[in-house]
Amino acid sequence: FKTQYVFLIFYYSSTRKLLNDAIMSNDFLKKLEPQHMREMVDCMYEMVYVEGELIIQEGDAGNHLYVLAEGFLEVLQNGKRLGEIRPGAAFGELAILYNCKRTATVKAVVQSHIWTLDRQTFQAIMMQTTQAKHEEY
Ligand code: CMP
């Protein structure tokens, strides 16, 4: 039992580190406040996508922000390959932060484990802290 417990703590803290590092290494998300980042990590949940599945479709309204934990993704625009996404990267931030349509399609090249945060939760986190700041004054 004890060994399992230790592994559980290890798994939990290494996932937190992965999610936090991914947010910190994203050019847009790294501008958020540390408290926002912590709360975002707290509210993320894991999804598994199978090979060939679309995570994001270009032109759609964006309702989630993602971090790739395991697997490999490709980024397409008008059917052309724009780039790739490797574990430890956050993506899907543009539509969430700037309220624009999805700028590209993101597809799982192999089965992939992806941590997700929904827009409502993201917005609630931002509002809470802003409100707390207002109450200080
Ligand atoms: P968003 O526009 O919300 O949805 C598609 C996402 O793909 C976008 O946010 C970025 O996170 C990501 N993306 C766009 N262009 C590239 C690229 N050239 N390389 C890697 N990721 C990209």
UniProtKB/TrEMBL annotation:
GO molecular function: cAMP binding; cAMP-dependent protein kinase inhibitor activity; protein kinase A catalytic subunit binding
Annotated GO CC locations: cAMP-dependent protein kinase complex; cytosol
UniProt keywords, alphabetically: cAMP, cAMP-binding, Nucleotide-binding
Domain Cyclic nucleotide-binding, first and last residues per copy: 28-137
Tree of life domain: Eukaryota
Stated family: Belongs to the cAMP-dependent kinase regulatory chain family.
Protein name: (Atlantic silverside) hypothetical protein
